[in-house]
Amino acid sequence: MQIGVVFPQTELGGDPGAARAYAQGVEALGYGHVLCYDHVVGADAEVHKDWKGPYDLHTTFHEPFVLFGFLAACTALELVTGIIILPQRQTALVAKQAAEVDLLTGGHFRLGVGLGWNAVEYEALGKEFSNRGARIDEQVELLRALWSKQSVTFHGAHETVTGAGLAPLPVQRPIPVWFGAQSAPAYRRVGRLADGWFPQVPPGERLDEARALVEQSARDAGRDPSSLGMEGRVSWGPEGLDKLVGHVEKWRAAGASHVSINTMGAGLVGVDGHLEALGRAIGAIGPA
Asked: Which of 18, 89, 127, 225 supports an S-S bond with 215, CB 3.0-4.6 Å?
């Protein structure tokens, strides 16, 4: 099981030196990948009076593809989006950006995608919120075509490309596409389409139920369920190392191929605070 980290972007601010120091520190500690969340704009709670989202316009989010271009020059870590909100972005542009990150990392890139929940953000990016589920299936099909063929003609219900292609193509053809999932339709989509998934439920009965849906959907689509990766997430908290290690072991027992450690929200100060906690964590967890 590969052990990675969640980039603590809501706490490191906009300092590029902090991003570089964090990634290089994580790599030196022995972690295998960095996972990065995605939000393009934040909502102003003074305007949206009923706002209940976990982030707002004051919350720092680096743009993942641009950040990964920077980090690719700093480290050899695998870089992972967890997740890009795909239906609010132009598919061909995502294909181009992802291909570039894949090239810059030498093929050490996973594209995690999902539907998102923020209608304010969809509006700002000029994309329809209500049909995002219907559109994402077609987007993934087009992404894989653009990463694998020099010339693509694709006429779908929502996407049209006529005799066009990317140059250069990525190292991975196609780039692995992973899905964030926390509902029955999403679990079925994982089984049909994904190379791997990020469950939004912990190990236990709910994960078992979700995985049963994923695996049955994979079989129904003529795919091998055992080929799908699964990445869990655990958080550093006041309960201490024993609880964190216990959660990691639960994901290992559940068959996770990857797990990421999240240190946001734990009251850690600066890059050094996050790295100190991650050093203690990896020391307690042991090698992958």
From this structure: 225
Distance CA 128, CA 245 (A): 41
Asked if 118 contacts 43 with a C-beta cutoff of 8 angstroms, the reply is yes
Buried b (16+ CB within 10 A) or exposed e, 92-130: bebbbbbbbbbbbbeebbbbbbbbbebbbbbeeeebebe
Domain boundaries, the chain: 32-175
Using pLDDT thresholds of 50, 70 and 90, give the confidence band for residue 140: very high
pLDDT band at 286 (very low <50, low <70, confident <90, very high): confident
Distances (CA, A) of 10 to 55, 82, 268: 9, 14, 12
CATH code of the domain made up of 32-175: 3.20.20.30
Q: What is the pLDDT of residue 288?
A: 61
Name 109's bridge partners: 79
